[in-house]
Write a structure and sequence with these properties.
heterodimer; A: mainly alpha; 8 helices; B: mainly alpha; 2 domains; 10 helices; globular
């Protein structure tokens, strides 16, 4: 779609601010070609606005009401939710957490243990046959998941 | 009687136990919901089934409706979701007019229109037919904007898209609609646009 048409649609839909709308208005008055395009789009828009809605069958409302008759009546959430229950559940969950925190604080000496950052490790000791098998097994599982995902997508798109 | 209460007042009455008032809400919105459903289903029986399903779903979820938004927007969201689910289930052909199959359908349709005499059809019929040839999203946007009188923001809410995105999609949908009208009517489109 060209820019002019887009500007005209924005003007017709009322999506432009005052300055932009005035600019388009002046352009419509000044350029005959622009005016023709504007009138064409305006007519088209009018036709769309004039479209009438489709009417369902005469028994539609009755059918809906028959269907909803078997459904439990909706009740306002304000009525449904008892705040005492909410506070009760909240209290039940919060109180043990507070008790554990208080117990920990009471028994704590508030001293931090020393951390020993010994990062030296021997690679040879870590690469054992078991570690290798575990690594390959994880790779196999990932591969299978990927293949499953790939073929599933392929079958959906195909 | 029907317009005596606003949507929100009616909802409040229903939530307070006056469930028969739901019939008024249904009557007020059924034409648009049915029209929107028809954009997806393409035949009246299926559209009526979708529309009926929407109203039942809306009734079930009425208590969760946040009364800060328009009821119509909320209801159209349910309609859109239900209709999309219906489409997926039925696996209806929703491809564009550029597909060969759709071309065949269109050609058949056009020839049948020729046989039945174009003059008997009015511009609304042609427009509705052309909208029916659009992709469901495009048809929904056009229907909601022009017939549902929903703003770009409200349509965005229904389709889970930003208003700017909806604006672009609306522009494109109208463009496609014009193309489909041109295909449908060939020479008659000029007459339609200038009547």
């Amino acid at each position: 779609m060209d820019l002019i048409e887009q500007q005209l649609w924005d003007y017709i839909d009322g999506n432009l601010d005052q300055i932009q709308a005035k600019f388009i208005e002046e352009k419509i008055n000044a350029e005959p070609q622009f005016k023709i395009q504007y009138e064409e789009l305006l007519q088209f828009s009018q036709k769309l606005e004039d479209l009438t809605l489709e009417e369902p069958s005469m028994s539609f409302t009755r059918n809906v009401m028959e269907d909803v008759a078997s459904v439990p009546a909706p009740i306002s959430l304000k009525t449904k939710i008892d705040t005492r229950v909410i506070y009760g559940v909240g209290g039940f969950l919060v109180l043990p957490i507070l008790a554990i925190l208080a117990f920990t604080a009471y028994n704590s000496t508030f001293t931090m243990p020393r951390f020993d950052f010994d990062l030296s490790f021997e690679v040879n000791k870590m690469i054992t046959p078991t570690a290798l098998y575990a690594f390959l097994f994880v790779d196999l599982v990932i591969g299978l998941i990927f293949m499953d995902y790939f073929f599933r997508n392929k079958s959906i798109s195909g | 009687m029907e317009q005596k209460f606003t949507d929100l007042e009616l909802i409040q009455q229903i939530l307070n136990g006056e469930t028969t008032q739901y019939a008024l809400l249904v009557k007020r919105h059924q034409r648009f919901v049915f029209t929107l459903a028809l954009r997806f289903a393409k035949n009246r029986e299926d559209a009526e089934e979708i529309a009926q399903d929407c109203f039942v779903k809306a009734y079930r979820a009425l208590a969760t409706f946040k009364q800060t938004a328009k009821f119509s927007t909320w209801l159209y969201t349910i309609t859109y979701t239900t209709a999309m689910t219906f489409l997926r289930k039925k696996q209806l052909d929703t491809s564009s007019i550029h597909d060969d199959e759709t071309f065949i359908q269109l050609e058949n349709h056009t020839s049948s229109l020729n046989a039945n005499d174009y003059e008997k059809q009015n511009s609304h019929d042609f427009l509705n037919q052309a909208i029916g040839l659009l992709a469901p999203d495009d048809a929904t946007i056009i229907t909601m904007f022009y017939q549902g009188e929903q703003s770009l923001e409200e349509i965005g809410e229904v389709l889970h898209m930003q208003p700017n995105h909806i604006k672009v999609k609306l522009h494109r949908a109208r463009q496609k609609l014009k193309e489909k009208l041109q295909l449908l009517l060939k020479d008659e489109v000029k007459e339609l646009l200038w009547i």
